């Protein structure tokens, strides 16, 4: 698009129940902070972090959405342009895990079909209060064909890994897409190739 | 000899090695050989001479040294004098120093005494004050002069506690004790009286009295209580006013001018009322309670505000059927059944009202925030960073967690879903009702769709909520990018009917056509296209539509940018508001490019399915015109043009159709594509023909006519596209094979050859009069 200083730009949207630690994950990753007593997010928050992966400058645009129900219609509007979704739940809160199917329905309904979804179980620092076993979560994510990771925003466990792994996957996905697009159809973007467009054999 | 030797050694020692005798006595004694002795002797003689010279020089200095000695002797007595003076001076200094130290210690003592004296006076004053307060309070209370009494109490409260202790210890201790007791009793009594009087004044709604006692509270150290009691009074006023307003709402006639936004108006009245209260009473609070107290007052007021907002919003939800409408919309979105679908137009007024309600709330919250922030700033100017942070946090908490904010967030949440539905349904309608007036390049739906999108985003913007605005920008992007682009895409997929079959098709479809046009009555239906002419026009109109869409999106983005800048400059939205909007708008702008891509695809399609099948046969006719000609035929061609004139006429006719139906920009792109096509196709047929010398000349003439014509009809430079053909004409016009060398390589001058050497040979071979050996022999 513009001549800005990056090779890739990806939009990552964090979703999940209220209070599972979405904002803390984002703050930990972008600012290295764990703000205690973090208030509920209003609407959506917006953070940018540029990382370097194998010599490529990757700009991550991270949208941290409010988990509360009344912001749902705002957050839904961000799904479609997202390259990746981080679906977060709290391992010490059975309820937040039980809501996952509902979130998946939302993703199904609003997100692009090429979106990468990562399931994140946060707050592993509170191991003694764990309500959702790792095995259960893994089985669930496997059934849904999702990548699964357990994190602690507080202890900074796996947070960096979460975002950097995701960025890696997004890069390889993007590379594949441009490849496919270049071969099959001159139309960039949506991959809704228009079959009648098989002309231009003379330029 | 020995004496001389030792003298020499002595001198040598003093001279630092310069004149040391090189021979020791032992060495001289051991000498037995005559020549050696002689040599030693002469050396010693030389040395002696040197020593004598040195002695002489030293002796010469003797007089100067002596005269210096005399001067030094003369200085002696003076030095003694100076020494005496110095000793005297030192004595004096020591004395002065002692004296000064003595004085300064006395001054210190004096200073201490003075301070103590001051303190004593202060205490005496305080004790006097205390007495004065004791007497004063009694009198003031008796005279019902509560301000005076409170002032005395305030004085008493601000007195040093040790003073009171001190006065107790005095001789009149017991009296003071009694007085003190009286004073404390007076304090308690005054507190009770003020509270009572305040309550009475509140009940009677006697504002001057209320304010009077409100001012007394802080004097008695009852800041919190004063503020909370005063707020209570103000809240009651707010509540009463709100109740009246709500009753008025219930009585409002539905035909009233403001009926459609009556709830927004009611909220506005509520907010304005509170704002006025804050405005009026802020100076009193500031003056009598000090800065930084406004937060407490507003926190109390906000509770009442929330209570009233709840009532208004409840009424709004009930009367406007807000939740049911939302449910209805949700059902309509999920189910595709058209039977139960809610009419988008019905939503229009309620959507406008909700955004207005939110805008008013945002305005009010911003007002409160500004007031509290500036009050904190004054109050916290000396405070630590921690206190400031804590204040900031509590303010955020107040603003974010108040029921007003939450309620509005809820309403806006529903609004976004409904607005999205409104937009999508209305766009669908515009698409369904699409029509193209004759002579118009674009059809109605483009203008309509952008009008709708603009309206919806504009309405979201008018809510002053950045998140709401961004959400609607996102939804609009989705709507344009997927749904509406899909509509145009589908139309383009129908393709531009190939003209060769045009006549056949026209015959087949005419019956259907008649039936259909009777239904359509002059409008051409954009869904089922039966007639080829209509199909053609539809395709061209769609191309124009796509281009206009791309333009409109950029215009929309720019308009929104400046609108948002206005909103942000008024201080709405958080720190990231601008970044959020920018990002959402960037996504929208990207859609413009997708339309542009679609346009290019459509144009290529048009070129390959409509232009190429026609132009190709016309060009192929070139093959049927022999270019292997003699003088006679050449002249004949001169009189009756065999190919190029007809080709130009055909081309002109065909392009005229596109020129009329396409916007200038698209037509330009198309003619550029067509020109490229002509150049490529013509090249093919030329390579299939054979030429005589005059045939080459004929081709050159034909090419020049064609280029001259194309130059007049396109704005692009076409010379470049025809460069290869022009060079081929040049080659076909050569007298001899070797003449090519006049133009090739170092002789090419400004000409850049677009033909490869192999191609040059290929073209040369087209000339039947050129021998292939000559061509082969060429060194290119």
Short descriptors:
heterodimer; A: 203 residues; alpha/beta; Rossmann fold; disordered C terminus; B: 780 residues; mainly alpha; 4 domains; 80% helix; flat; disordered N terminus
Low-confidence stretches of chain B: 1-19, 500-529
What is the rounded distance between the termini of chain B?
114 Å
Count up the domains of chain A: 1
What string gives the helices and strands of chain A in order?
EHEEHEHHEHEH
| Shape type of chain A | globular
Query: What is the structural class of chain B?
Result: mainly alpha
Please state the second-level CATH architecture of chain A.
Answer: 3-Layer(aba) Sandwich
- Class from helix and strand fractions of chain A: alpha/beta
C-alpha end-to-end distance of chain A:
24 Å
Instruction: Report the total helices of chain A.
Output: 6
Give the averaged pLDDT of chain B, no decimals. 84
- The overall strand count of chain A is 6
Mean pLDDT of chain A: 85
Structure, described:
The complex is a heterodimer of chains A (203) and B (780). Chain A is an alpha/beta fold. Chain A has one domain (6-160): P-loop containing nucleotide triphosphate hydrolases (Rossmann fold), CATH 3.40.50.300. Chain A has 6 helices and 6 strands; from the N terminus they run E-H-E-E-H-E-H-H-E-H-E-H. Chain A is globular. Chain B is mainly α and 780 residues long. Chain B folds into 4 domains: 50-198, no CATH class; 222-412; 434-506 and 531-605, no CATH class; 625-777, Methane Monooxygenase Hydroxylase, Chain G, domain 1, CATH 1.20.58.1970. Chain B is 80% helix and 0% strand. Chain B has 26 helices and no strands. Chain A: Its cofactor is Mg(2+). Chain A: It is found in: Autolysosome membrane; Cytoplasmic vesicle, Autophagosome membrane; Golgi apparatus, cis-Golgi network membrane; Golgi apparatus, trans-Golgi network membrane. Chain A: It comes from Terrapene triunguis (Three-toed box turtle).
């Amino acid at each position: 698009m513009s001549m800005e200083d990056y090779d890739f730009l990806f939009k990552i949207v964090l979703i999940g129940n209220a209070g599972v630690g979405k904002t803390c994950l984002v703050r930990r990753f972008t600012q290295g902070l764990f703000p205690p007593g973090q208030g509920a997010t209003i609407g959506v928050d917006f953070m940018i972090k540029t990382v370097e992966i194998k010599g490529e400058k990757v700009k991550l645009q991270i949208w941290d959405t409010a988990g509360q129900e009344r912001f749902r219609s705002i957050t839904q509007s961000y799904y479609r342009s997202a390259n990746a979704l981080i679906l977060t739940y709290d391992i010490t809160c059975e309820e937040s895990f039980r809501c996952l199917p509902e979130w998946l329905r939302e993703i199904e309904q609003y997100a692009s079909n090429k979106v990468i979804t990562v399931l994140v179980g946060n707050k592993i620092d509170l191991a003694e209060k764990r309500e959702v076993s790792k095995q259960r979560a893994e089985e669930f994510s496997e059934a849904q064909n999702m990548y699964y990771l357990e994190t602690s925003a507080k202890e900074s466990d796996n947070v960096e890994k979460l975002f950097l792994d995701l960025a890696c996957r997004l890069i390889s996905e993007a590379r594949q897409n441009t490849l496919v697009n270049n071969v099959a159809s001159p139309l960039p973007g949506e991959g809704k190739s228009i079959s009648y467009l098989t002309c231009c054999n003379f330029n | 000899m020995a004496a001389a030797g030792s003298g020499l050694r002595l001198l040598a020692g003093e001279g630092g090695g310069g004149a040391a005798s090189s021979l020791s006595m032992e060495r001289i004694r051991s000498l037995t050989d005559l020549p050696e002795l002689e040599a030693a002797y002469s050396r010693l003689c030389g040395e002696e001479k040197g020593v004598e010279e040195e002695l002489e020089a030293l002796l010469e200095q003797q007089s100067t040294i002596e005269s210096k000695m005399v001067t030094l002797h003369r200085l002696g007595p003076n030095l003694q004098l100076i020494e005496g003076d110095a000793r005297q001076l030192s004595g004096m200094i020591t004395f002065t120093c002692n004296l000064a130290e003595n004085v300064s210690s006395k001054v210190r003592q004096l200073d201490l005494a003075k301070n103590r004296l001051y303190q004593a006076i202060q205490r005496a004053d305080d004790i006097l004050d205390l007495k004065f307060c004791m007497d004063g309070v009694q009198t003031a209370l008796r005279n019902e002069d509560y301000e005076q009494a409170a002032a005395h109490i305030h004085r008493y409260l601000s007195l040093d506690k040790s003073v009171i202790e001190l006065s107790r210890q005095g001789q009149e201790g017991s009296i003071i004790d009694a007085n003190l007791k009286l004073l404390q009793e007076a304090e308690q009594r005054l507190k009770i009286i003020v509270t009572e009087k305040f309550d009475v004044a509140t009940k009677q709604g006697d504002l001057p009295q209320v304010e009077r006692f409100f001012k007394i509270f802080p004097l008695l150290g009852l800041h919190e209580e004063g503020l909370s009691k005063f707020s209570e009074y103000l809240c009651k006023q707010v509540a009463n006013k709100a109740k009246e307003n709500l009753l008025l709402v219930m009585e409002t006639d539905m035909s009233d001018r403001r009926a459609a936004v009556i709830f927004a108006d009611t909220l506005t009245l509520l907010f304005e009322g509170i704002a006025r209260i804050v405005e009026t009473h802020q100076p009193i609070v500031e003056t009598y309670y000090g800065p930084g107290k406004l937060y407490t007052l507003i926190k109390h007021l906000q509770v009442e505000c929330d209570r009233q907002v709840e009532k208004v919003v409840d009424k709004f939800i009930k009367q406007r059927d807000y939740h049911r409408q939302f449910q209805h919309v949700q059902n309509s979105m999920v189910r595709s059944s058209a039977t139960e679908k809610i009419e988008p137009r019905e939503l229009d007024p309620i959507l406008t009202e909700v955004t207005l309600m939110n805008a008013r709330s945002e305005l009010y919250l911003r007002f409160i925030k500004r007031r509290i922030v500036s009050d904190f700033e004054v109050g916290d100017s000396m405070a630590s960073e921690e206190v400031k942070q804590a204040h900031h946090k509590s303010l955020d908490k107040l603003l974010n967690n108040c029921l007003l904010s939450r309620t509005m967030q809820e309403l806006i949440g529903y609004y976004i879903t409904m607005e999205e539905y409104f937009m999508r349904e209305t766009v669908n309608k515009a698409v369904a009702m699409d029509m193209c007036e004759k002579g118009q390049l674009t059809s109605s739906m483009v203008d309509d769709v952008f009008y709708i999108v603009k309206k919806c985003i504009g309405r979201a913007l008018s809510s002053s909520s950045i998140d709401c605005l961004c959400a609607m920008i996102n939804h609009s992007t989705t709507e344009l990018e997927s749904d509406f682009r899909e509509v145009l895409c589908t139309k383009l997929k129908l393709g531009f009917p190939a003209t060769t079959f045009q006549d056949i098709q026209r015959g087949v479809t005419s019956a259907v056509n008649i039936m259909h046009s009777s239904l359509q009555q002059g409008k051409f239906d954009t869904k089922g296209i039966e007639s080829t002419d209509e199909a053609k026009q539809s395709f061209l109109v769609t191309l124009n539509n796509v281009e206009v869409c791309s333009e409109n999106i950029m215009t929309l983005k720019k308009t929104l940018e400046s609108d948002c800048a206005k909103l942000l400059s008024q201080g709405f939205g958080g720190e990231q508001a601008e970044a959020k909007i920018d990002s959402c708008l960037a996504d929208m702008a990207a859609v413009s490019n997708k339309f542009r891509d679609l346009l290019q695809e459509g144009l290529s399609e048009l070129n390959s399915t409509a232009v190429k099948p026609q132009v190709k046969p016309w060009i192929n006719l070139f093959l049927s015109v022999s270019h292997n000609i003699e003088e006679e035929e050449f002249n004949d061609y001169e009189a009756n043009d065999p190919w190029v004139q007809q080709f130009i006429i055909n081309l002109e006719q065909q392009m005229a159709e596109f020129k009329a139906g396409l916007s200038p920009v698209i037509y330009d792109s198309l003619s550029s594509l067509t020109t490229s096509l002509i150049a490529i196709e013509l090249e093919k047929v030329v390579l299939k023909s054979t030429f005589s010398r005059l045939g080459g000349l004929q081709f050159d003439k034909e090419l020049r006519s064609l280029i001259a014509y194309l130059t007049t009809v396109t704005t692009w430079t076409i010379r470049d596209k025809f460069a290869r053909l022009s060079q081929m004409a040049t080659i076909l016009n050569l007298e001899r094979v070797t003449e090519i060398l006049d133009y090739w390589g170092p002789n090419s001058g400004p000409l850049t050859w677009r033909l490869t050497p192999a191609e040059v040979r290929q073209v040369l071979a087209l000339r039947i009069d050129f021998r292939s050996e000559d061509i082969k022999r060429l060194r290119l």
